[in-house]
Structure formats: C-alpha cells, structure tokens
C-alpha cells in the first residue's frame, strides 16, 4: 500500500493540471493538414459565452482574442514553412450551435486535399530507425523531406528524368516516366538505395 507521503499532490500541481483542463474546455475543432513540410495540427478554441477565439498551430498559439461580441466570423493565419494561408470560418447553425470549417488557400480542406493529391506525391519511409516523409511538388519539382526543402539535381535519362537528392548517407532519386496514357500523365517513383518506395496515401 502506498504511504501517505506518496499520495500528496502539491496545490500547484493541482492548479496547473486544472488550469490546463480549464484551458482546453473551449476546444471545439482539431484538424490535421498535410503540407509539403509536414503534417500540421490546427486546434481551435471558441468560448461561446465570452466569444473567446484561440488558434493553435502545432501546439503554438497563433491568435488569441478574449472578448468578442460577435460569435460568428473568421480567423485567418498561416501554417508551415511555406506560410500557407488558412482560415477558420465560424457559422451559427441553430440557436447556440456553431459549425467550424477550415479553408486552406481559399479552398475547403476536402477540396484542398483532393487537389493536393493531384499536384504532389508523398512517400513515407524508415531509414536506419528514423522516419522520413518525402514530398514531391509536381508543378515546381521541389522535393521536401521532414520539413526541409532538399537540394536536388535533375538529369535526363533514356525514358524520362531523375531528380537526385540525399537523405543522410542514403542516395535517393525520383524518377519521372510518361505513363503513355493521357489521363495518367507522368508517373513518379521514389528510389532509395536502389529500392522502390511505395507511395503513401494521406
């Protein structure tokens, strides 16, 4: 059985635990947004009595408004290394119910992600015990790995192009080959240390 000393919790500990709980009671929405530099978590607190609005991006407070007389409206901020524009819309549904929608670059999150899957390829792999997330932006041919834009070197090969870069001491390249079909366009494949990495679906 535990002795009394082990069970006592200081008043400060209780207060800090409680204030954290109190802080999160107005949390009304959480979104995860996959961008080239990583997956970002957006949290939104909305106090429907005080009108308080707080936006956190990856746990960091971006916007805080304590007293808002207008309970509906929008909050705009940026996300990630490329400072992607994000907007949270607050709409009244009925009575005291509210709906929160997230827009990225002016598109609904769903539309943005659908469009993104057409304009980017993502691969997730583990090298020497470390997880890596590699993203190719097809329009610019920029390659991102774990939040950093990579130095790349492109070269033409017999059946297409190769974009070379390295991750740690691993040599990597993304091969772009025409599918021969107009609908499919170009097929991009990530090769790491001479093995093909399957594409991740986000």
From TrEMBL:
Signal peptide: none annotated. Its main location: cytoplasm. Gene3D superfamilies: 2.40.128.180. It comes from the Eukaryota. InterPro entries: FAIM1, FAIM1_dom_sf. One of its GO terms (biological process) is negative regulation of extrinsic apoptotic signaling pathway via death domain receptors. Pfam families: FAIM1 (PF06905). Plays a role as an inducible effector molecule that mediates Fas resistance produced by surface Ig engagement in B cells. PANTHER family: FAS APOPTOTIC INHIBITORY MOLECULE 1, FAS APOPTOTIC INHIBITORY MOLECULE FAIM. Belongs to the FAIM1 family. This is Fas apoptotic inhibitory molecule 1. The lineage of its organism: Eukaryota, Metazoa, Chordata, Craniata, Vertebrata.
């Amino acid at each position: 059985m535990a002795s009394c000393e082990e069970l006592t919790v200081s008043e400060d500990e209780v207060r800090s635990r409680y204030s954290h709980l109190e802080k999160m009671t107005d949390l009304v929405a959480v979104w995860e947004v996959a961008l080239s530099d990583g997956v970002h978590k957006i949290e939104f607190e909305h106090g429907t009595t005080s009108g308080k609005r707080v936006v956190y991006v990856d746990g960091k407070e971006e916007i805080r408004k304590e007293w808002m007389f207008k309970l509906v409206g929008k909050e705009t901020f940026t996300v990630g290394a490329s400072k992607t524009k994000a907007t949270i819309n607050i709409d009244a549904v009925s009575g005291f119910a509210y709906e929160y929608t997230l827009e990225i670059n002016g598109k609904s999150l769903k539309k943005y992600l659908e469009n993104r899957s057409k304009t980017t390829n993502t691969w997730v792999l583990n090298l020497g015990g470390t997880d890596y997330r590699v993203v190719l932006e097809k329009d610019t041919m920029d390659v991102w790995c774990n939040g950093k834009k990579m130095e790349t070197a492109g070269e033409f090969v017999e059946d297409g192009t190769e974009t070379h870069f390295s991750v740690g001491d691993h040599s990597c390249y993304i091969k772009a080959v025409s599918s021969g079909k107009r609908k499919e366009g170009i097929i991009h494949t990530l090769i790491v240390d001479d093995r093909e990495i399957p594409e991740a679906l986000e």
